[in-house]
Structures are given as C-alpha cells and as structure tokens.
C-alpha cells in the first residue's frame, strides 16, 4: 500500500506490518484516523509518543509539524491484546517496586 506523503512508517512499524501481515485496508484506516484526529482525549501518552487503538490494532505514533504541515511517524503497530499484557506487566513492576520500597528489600 502507498502511504500518504505525510505519514511515515519507522523501521520497527514496517517490520510489524510484515510480521503481523497487516491488511492494506487496516493500514489505510490507521492513516486516515491519525491524520484526521492526531490528538484524542483517549490517547495514551508514552513519553514523546502517543498510543491509540485503531482498526483492531494498537498504534504507537508521534504527530509533528514539518514545513507547516502535519506529519505522522508510526513507530509500532501491535495487536490490541499486547497492550493489556504490557499494562499488566507495568502493574506488576509497580507492585514489586512498592513492596521493595515498603520493606527496604
């Protein structure tokens, strides 16, 4: 699929597209969503990036301005269930850190 000129797949996202065999229609829907609404209240901040669920995928991206135009760098595209596993892992790490801090271990 030919991406819009103001959307770029980072190497990791291009690898995800091949690894997960993401259909062209899903990529098209992802691009349209990110270009139409680059910032949503439900977006998850991930450092300099944002995370959003689109077309059954969890997309990590960075909206920027280049030459006065909106530009979207797509960093990762993952299955939605990956997001819940990541959140579960982060919750476990926070619990462990609190336990270690509370007991001085």
Summarize the structure.
The protein has 105 residues and is an alpha+beta fold. It has helices at 11-19, 24-36, 80-103, and strands at residues 7-9, 44-46, 49-54, 57-66, 69-79.
Salient structural properties:
5-stranded mixed β-sheet; about 100 residues; alpha+beta; 3 helices; 5 strands; about 45% helix; single chain
Describe this structure in words.
- The protein has three helices and five strands; from the N terminus they run βααββββα.
- The chain has 105 residues and is α+β, with helices and mostly antiparallel strands.
- It has a five-stranded mixed beta sheet with strand order 1-5-4-3-2.
- It is globular and about 55 Å long.
The coarse silhouette is globular
Secondary-structure element string: EHHEEEEH
Mean pLDDT: 85
Instruction: Give the strand tally.
Output: 5
SS-based class? alpha+beta
User: What proportion of the residues form beta strands (DSSP E)?
Assistant: 25-35%
Helix proportion = 40-55%
Strand sequence of the main sheet, in spatial order?
1-5-4-3-2
Main sheet makeup = 5 strands, mixed
Q: Kindly provide the radius of gyration, computed on alpha-carbon positions and rounded to a whole number of angstroms.
A: 16 Å
